[in-house]
Amino acid sequence: MRTVDIIHNKRDGKELSSEEIAFLIEGYTKGEIPDYQMSAWAMAVYFNGMSARETADLTLAMARSGDQVDLSSIPGIKVDKHSTGGVGDTTTLIVGPLVAAAGIPVAKMSGRGLGHTGGTIDKLEAIPGFAVERTTEQFLAQVREIGLAVVGQTGNLTPADKKLYGLRDVTATVESIPLIASSIMSKKIASGADAIVLDVKTGRGAFMKSLDDSIKLAQAMVDIGTEVGRETVAVITNMDEPLGPSIGNSLEVLEAIDTLSGRGPAELTELCLELAAHMVRLGGKADSEAEAKELVTRLLENGEALAKLKQFIAAQGGDAHVAEDPARLPQASRRVDVPAPEEGCVAAIDAEALGITAMLLGAGRATKEDKIDLAVGIKLFKRVGDPVKKGEPLAELYINREDSAETAEMMRRTAAAFTIASAPAEKLKLIYAVVTKDGIRKL
Known about the structure:
Structural class: alpha+beta
Strand order of the largest sheet: 1-4-5-13-14
């Protein structure tokens, strides 16, 4: 088998065999196939696409290129959740305890934030003492004992995907939907999940800017799951404005605690209940979405989900008292209001711009090597559709640095992310569609 023949076949729009795809990924991972040939293949895929079977084969080949987590010692159906990245997205910290409280084991590996999107692992590290590094034995034992563990990704999970992603980034092939879908799903499959719920973001603060592209990506990932025997559901959700009002690690932990205490933001609560309900149904604890939604709502209201969060924090060495005393979380030295420049109605909020501003404050990373400040961030007071008076606070900055010029610039950037119009604006739709193996259901 020759790499050049595989490139030739894909260039001409032919379907590659399972053996050809396995040969390509194995050879590239081992360094036997050079970057220039893999770049040519990636560009051929970009223009000609891949069938559902090809994409599933690519996903499995990447999943098998490194470590695979064996969750078979954990009883029950293991359901994982993945978000394609957004701003103010604290769902894992809420959905994990909710689903575990329903009796579904959640064994999750999460990543750190990079760029304008936050990482679950960074948020958890805002809890004093919380340990995100666990041995495989500790990880499995914790899920068996309390039903929930969230740890950092292992160093050798899907090495083929790491190599291919880096190559795509410099060869203008990042936007290929089969390559995006296989990248995401290979990590989920290597992590050992039996079933997968995907939160596919769409809009200005998301990777996929258009609803059509987001649905195509969701369908591709659901098709992969179906091909490899993992039931998969994708929920298409809005990221034209931040999901929750808090952007920043410590702030988002507090928001998760508030949500599990029954006093969280409406949109964040709604989405978490939606995602948790799908996980509960896939996990076999409910026969329908309606029954699952009723169960997770009850667990939120009766305090069982909050109790599970405390148990989870304590199990990983964290200070569970943060649930009652948020002052134990990292605190910023200053808070600065950002006033509205004019009266009117909030017509749009640039989620990506706010995510970048939070990163510049120190809440995120521009490069993987950057150190983050767990206390800083942005708290929004207005959403799209809200009326606002001139001088009324649009948001509040949580700051640790003392540079007045930098503070003024951060205030300017935050205010510029809000579009204020004279005419009333409608509230944004939160959930656009649900994609399953049976098709697309628009909401």
